């Protein structure tokens, strides 16, 4: 009889165990349309259990000489490559290449995939949620891609103040053994760090831990970009922002079965699927060209019902 996930993990808080099982049971609706491989990517949302039984997510600081998003805080991930069987394959390969996460599906179990996200440069990203069950693993960072590895409580992405996050009140000793402290950090309470709003934005709100920016999105309305401090800004670590923040909000919302205590969307914001469809059908950028080049246009001709649907947008 297969072992339960609970039997493979250190002691968990009840809410952490419930979070894992909700994510494990989460299923996407069946997708009829196909996405062009040349504009597809995946990221790994890698969870593990901390000393106090809370769930943490691994985050990295991108290397300074990366062509895009240098120095940013990110999830391991990247674009589809030949040989990747599916989004899970892309996410696992990228996590192995960036931080040395084993490809072994028993030591690192897949819990679920989330709905696809679209980036500002028209890349379709699938988040794949993974859970480390072997806590003897030691990360091996690829210095050409990753400068630093650290973690935050997954529940942090449901709250606007760190005082609401019990795990932020402790310095944890991680259960992943033999990892040098300079590779994966313990978590101090976030310091008071100001956040300035850039000029030219539609709107925004400053905050010491949580903040957001409402920005114009490729001619298709306004989109809210969330930002969370990591507590390491004084060491040069950038906040969790944009796509990474949106994916972690979605992951935490599903896992803890609880909405965040802040509004997720800007007024009138279109859903993620509406934005993808608009980019394919009415855009002139790389996503539309990739759909044409891979002969997928017929998959995208029957979406008027989606565009006409009214209701609250989702991330």
TrEMBL record:
Coiled-coil annotated spans: none
The protein's required cofactors: Mn(2+); Mg(2+)
Tagged with keyword Lipid metabolism: no
GO CC terms, sorted: cytoplasm
Domain Nudix hydrolase as annotated: residue spans: 38-178
A Pfam family annotated for this UniProt entry: NUDIX
InterPro entries xref list: CoAse (IPR045121), NUDIX_hydrolase-like_dom_sf (IPR015797), NUDIX_hydrolase_dom (IPR000086)
GO biological process, one term: organophosphate biosynthetic process
A GO molecular-function annotation: metal ion binding
Keyword Metal-binding set for record: yes
The entry's keywords: Hydrolase, Magnesium, Manganese, Metal-binding
Protein name: Nudix hydrolase domain-containing protein
Source organism (scientific name): Kwoniella bestiolae CBS 10118
């Amino acid at each position: 009889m297969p072992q339960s996930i609970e039997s493979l993990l250190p002691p968990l808080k009840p809410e952490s165990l419930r979070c894992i099982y909700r994510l494990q049971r989460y299923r996407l609706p069946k997708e009829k349309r196909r996405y062009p491989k040349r504009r597809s990517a995946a990221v790994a949302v890698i969870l593990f259990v901390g000393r106090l039984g809370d769930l943490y997510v691994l985050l990295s600081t991108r290397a300074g000489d990366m062509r895009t998003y240098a120095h940013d805080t990110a999830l391991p991930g990247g674009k589809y490559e030949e040989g990747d069987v599916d989004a899970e394959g892309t996410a696992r390969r990228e996590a192995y290449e960036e931080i040395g996460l084993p490809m072994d599906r028993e030591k690192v179990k897949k819990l679920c995939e989330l709905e696809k996200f679209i980036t500002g440069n028209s890349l379709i990203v699938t988040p794949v949620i993974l859970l480390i069950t072997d806590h003897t693993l030691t990360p091996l960072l690829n210095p050409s891609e990753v400068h630093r590895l650290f973690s935050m409580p997954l529940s942090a992405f449901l709250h606007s103040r760190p005082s609401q996050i019990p795990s932020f009140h402790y310095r944890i000793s991680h259960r992943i053994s033999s990892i040098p402290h300079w590779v994966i950090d313990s978590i101090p309470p976030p310091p008071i760090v100001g956040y300035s709003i850039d000029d030219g934005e539609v709107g925004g709100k400053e905050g010491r831990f949580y903040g957001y920016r409402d920005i114009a999105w490729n001619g298709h309305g306004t989109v809210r970009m969330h930002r969370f401090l990591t507590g390491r800004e004084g060491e040069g670590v950038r906040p969790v922002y944009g796509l990474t923040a949106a994916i972690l909000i979605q992951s935490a919302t599903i896992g803890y079965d609880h909405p965040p205590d802040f509004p997720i969307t800007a007024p009138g914001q279109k859903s993620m699927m509406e934005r993808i469809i608009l980019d394919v059908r009415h855009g002139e950028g790389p996503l539309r060209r990739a759909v044409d080049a891979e002969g997928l246009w017929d998959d995208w001709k029957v979406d008027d019902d989606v565009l006409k649907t009214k209701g609250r947008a989702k991330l």
